[in-house]
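B., you asked whether I could sanity-check this one before it goes into the benchmark set. Here's the sequence:
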Amino acid sequence: MSDAIQQQGNPQAPGSWPGGDGGSGDWPRYPRIYEAIPASGPTTGGNTVLLTGAGLLGTSQVLFGGVPAIIVTQDPSGNSVTVTAPAHAAGTVQVIAITSRGNSNAVSYTYTVTGPTGPTVTTLVPTSGPTTGGTAFAIVGANLTGGTVTFNGVPATGVSINGTGTVLTGTTPAGPAGNVPVVVTTPGGSATVPGGFTYTAPPPTVTSLIPASGSAAGGTAFVITGSNLGGASVTFNGVAASGVSVNASGTALIGFTPAGPVGNVPVVVTTPAGSATVAGGYTYTAPPLPVVTSLVPSSGTTAGGTAFVITGSNLGGASVTFNGVAASGVSVNASGTALIGFTPAGPVGNVPVVVTTSAGSTIVAGGYTYV
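And here's what the prediction gave me:
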């Protein structure tokens, strides 16, 4: 039999054992402990320890360095006792069992200092909020006592933890749009919140649209001021504006109006975070009538085919007729100030020349003379 299971000295109370040790009574006649499993544990206690041995039936108390343990179960054959270890200062102590037949031998048990258990996280509510921060949140888990929280590396504010260390509350800091990591840190370690937190950009707001009206032909430059305009698009009566651009701070948007019907129409600014309707909308006005200041030359052959130039303003999109017959090869410059083409054939004499755009028509003073 190994030294580990030999009776260590004679810790029992003095006196003879009934029947002797190995005599006419049942063997063994005194309690003994072979080993404690495990042989070490935390200073806080609370862990389960199995004491193996013999003659342990009827154990009334188990002492760890003189401190009573809680007896959980006993083997009916007296070969083991299961206990819950008590708390004790760090170091090695002696464990003995006390029975009706006396005290057992002592075995060693070592108390060790263990660090706090790291946090665990099961739930974060809510899982999203605005980039401006200020969202109240709750994290549910375990071992959260003494914890701090960061969102994308930035500490949350107003952090508070309940007495059991299972619920942590606070307020989110500001953060960039998109999903970011959330980390809970305690003296025992850190835990990353599954799924993180998603920052959402606030919806756009609009304070002004300048100008508030313009030609139905479109192309009017405009400026919209407001906030959270980053990434915005703009529609006038459901038609997208062109050349849209937003400044870095998201407070000003510029562009050009599309063509639209005469009258007031809705204007809507849309970003990934939502939409805003411009108060008062936009009023399309009838485009100005074409203006003609000259027709050169003012005469030409009845066979037609004479190249001509009409100068003026508001000539964009214009057509031209000579005596009611359309000129050919008509083209207008970008500024709408010059129109060129070729005369159709016509009768001898002076005939009316009419320039027509979407805004209306203008008769060219002096007409055109076929010769």
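One thing to flag: The mean pLDDT is 91. Otherwise nothing jumped out at me.
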